[in-house]
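Hey, I was hoping to borrow your eyes for a little while. For a while now I've been wondering how a particular protein folds. The fold is given in discrete form, as structure tokens running alongside the sequence. Could you read through the record and tell me how the tokens relate to the sequence? Take your time with it, there's no hurry, and the full record follows here:
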Amino acid sequence: MERAGLISLTQQNGRPYGIRAAKPIYRTAFNHMLSDTRLTALMGVLTTKQLIQDEEDRIRRYEEEMARLEKVLRGGVRE
């Protein structure tokens, strides 16, 4: 929903903290959704899983870059 421009997530201490409607027209609908504890729990889990996946992807890219740098330092093939 954030990527679609429907909501914006606020963060505190590096963690999702709050959800705001990206446009005032969505506020009533989102207030109704936020009152649903099962939905908010699910969204929290899904958001956390996505954040974990994003960090894992970033780590994988860093590891690949380090492997390429190691090849260069050892006199290997340049990419």
